[in-house]
């Protein structure tokens, strides 16, 4: 009985070794840069970390499909290096010894990438699934709604336009008033010095003092009485 059990375990081990190997079907390579990400606070990659990784992948598979019965033992790791890199596959024990299609594993990893990163205190750049494209970080929402920002900008432009029109109108009115005053001053000065009679400019007469015509003045001197 013991021999049969050992033989069965060896068969499963050989089968698992064939499933999880570099470039195997539905296998994915993972590379971690723990030292780069955490510096002096970097942790050692050991059996406990491997168990956590298997648990996170199983969690991702179960969360991706509500009917999934993936267990931690269904996640296989192989070719683990000190640098830290390794390959993994997810098996489907319900159908003898086969692997879950890579498309499903990829979708599950992408869906739960942030949770996996957080578990290892890493990011998409320091926890790399080489055949799985990095997920985009969620867009940063502004503290103020976009429509309110646009409304504020438009309102400022309208207020600035109104102020500009008012200031321009006041300056134009002042300029017109100044020109009108200067014109009136020039007209008053011209009327006080020179008048025109039949188109011929003449000096204005001083009605109080009178004005002596030169021709008649000469006649008066010639015919003065004795």
Automatic annotation (TrEMBL):
Primary residence: membrane
Keyword Glycoprotein: yes
Signal sequence range: 1-17
InterPro entries with a match to the protein in the record: Collectrin, Collectrin_dom
This protein's UniProt keywords: Cell membrane, Glycoprotein, Membrane, Phosphoprotein, Signal, Transmembrane, Transmembrane helix
Pfam family, one: Collectrin
Residue intervals of the Collectrin-like domain: 24-226
Record flagged with keyword Transmembrane: yes
Membrane spanning stretches: 146-170
Compartment(s) of residence: Cell membrane
Membrane topology: Single-pass type I membrane protein
GO biological process: positive regulation of amino acid transport
GO CC terms: extracellular exosome; plasma membrane
Top-level taxonomic group: Eukaryota
PANTHER family assigned to the protein according to its UniProt record, in alphabetical order: COLLECTRIN
Protein name: TMM27 protein
Source organism: Sagittarius serpentarius (Secretary bird)
Phylogenetic classification of the source organism: Eukaryota, Metazoa, Chordata, Craniata, Vertebrata
């Amino acid at each position: 009985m013991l021999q049969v059990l050992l033989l069965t375990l060896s068969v499963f081990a050989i089968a698992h070794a064939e499933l999880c190997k570099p470039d195997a079907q539905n296998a994915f390579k993972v590379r971690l840069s723990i030292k780069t990400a955490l510096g002096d606070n970097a942790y050692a990659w050991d059996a406990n970390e491997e168990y956590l990784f298997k648990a996170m992948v199983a969690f991702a598979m179960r969360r991706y499909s509500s009917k999934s019965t993936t267990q931690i033992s269904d996640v296989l790791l192989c070719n683990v290096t000190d640098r830290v890199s390794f390959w993994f596959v997810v098996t489907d024990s319900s159908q003898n010894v086969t692997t879950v299609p890579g498309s499903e594993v990829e979708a599950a990893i992408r869906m739960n990438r942030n949770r996996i990163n957080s578990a290892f205190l890493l990011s998409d750049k320091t926890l790399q699934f080489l055949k799985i494209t990095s997920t985009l970080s969620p867009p940063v929402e502004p503290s103020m709604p976009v429509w309110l920002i646009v409304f504020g900008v438009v309102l400022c432009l309208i207020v600035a336009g109104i102020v500009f029109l008012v200031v321009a109108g006041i300056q134009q009115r002042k300029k017109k008033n100044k020109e009108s005053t200067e014109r009136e001053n020039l007209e008053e000065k011209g009327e006080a010095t020179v008048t025109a009679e039949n188109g011929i400019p003449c000096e204005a007469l001083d009605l109080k003092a009178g004005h002596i015509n030169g021709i008649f003045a000469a006649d008066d001197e010639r015919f003065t009485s004795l």
